[in-house]
Amino acid sequence: MKRSFCLAALLLALCLLAVSLPGCGTAGVYASPNAGRTVARVGEEKIPYEALYYLAMNRRDELQETYGEAALRDEGIRADYEAYVWAHLLDRDVALRSLGADYGLDVTKGDIADSVDAAVAQIIETEYGGDTDAYVAMLDEVYLTDRYLRVLIGTEEYLPSALVVEMLKKGELDDSDATAEALMNSDALLHTYHVFISRQNGRSDDLNREKIEEIRATVAAGATPEARMDAMKEAIGGPYNNDYGDTSGSGYYFAVGEFDAAYEAAALALDENCGVSDVLETASGYYVILRCKKDADYIAAHFQNLKEKFYFIRLNERVEQRLATLTLEKTRLGARLDLADLTPVRAGGGRGTIIAAAAVGVALVTILVAAAIVLWNKRRKARGAAPEKKRRKQKR
Fold first, then answer.
1. Considering 98, 289, 383, 385, which has the largest number of Cβ atoms within 10 A of its Cβ?
2. What is the pLDDT of the chain when averaged over all its residues?
3. Number of C-alpha atoms within 13 angstroms, CB side, residue 382?
């Protein structure tokens, strides 16, 4: 009997040790238990609390930065805040995952999940020197969890390409070079240069407006396309431009549907001979756009990349169509939530819970094992005693 219980105790100790050791049953970063609770459903997809928390808390911070710490005490602001959160919880990412499901693609499984694992590992290594605690601190700072960050990365970085591959396999995309060439020589592909002045560059809005108007006047004053191009390139390299994306100096070649709709509309309205836009004001800042003719040598050298742009435009159209068909339904939990007083989610808050649950589970298994050993011993002794009783009866 003692030997049986000693074996059971040893099993419990080994299992608890495995739970407590790094990498043994504790790989990954686990958020507070409430993070995974379902607050809404969109078709077959469950919307977790962590998604709502991320959206709501970042929106709350924006409102407090604009209106002060007491922003959500104002009934009007609070009503707009709640409407914003629920409206934006059903977004393009949800539609993209819904479309992916039609092709058997899941951002939490298979090749996409493997790519996400590698990306997150690289983030932890390069950005935080391999310090997982620093990574968790970052997640808490922006109201994210490791699990939801992985869903976002998988959805935005890897799922679109995987969907395009599947659509090509099924013949749902026109893969002919002739079609691609025709599109590239139409207004479906635009070539622009621009100067962008951000609202977040530390200067006053009045000064930003003044500078963008000066740049626009200088570029537009060029008497020839070449002069306007030279003036634009000088402004791009000047002290007020806040866009550094044109690293090659070739400007931007983009398919209609790829850029912001207001930017594209402004560009389409311009003449190809280096037409200059009026100042375009957006939520993020101010643009002056120069539309130019497309260079045949550039198109030839980048043909495949430009061709693929049209694949993603078709994909975006499919995603927008899917988004228009989806509806969000709150669960009972979601309907009860006070968005102005949400229970916090901690990116590393589930570690202790998992260890405790694992310990309880191991303890229960150990008790069952011990009980089974005791029962087995009793039955073994009973079987050994039966022949002895039979011999006693025969002697009588």
1. 289
2. 87
3. 6
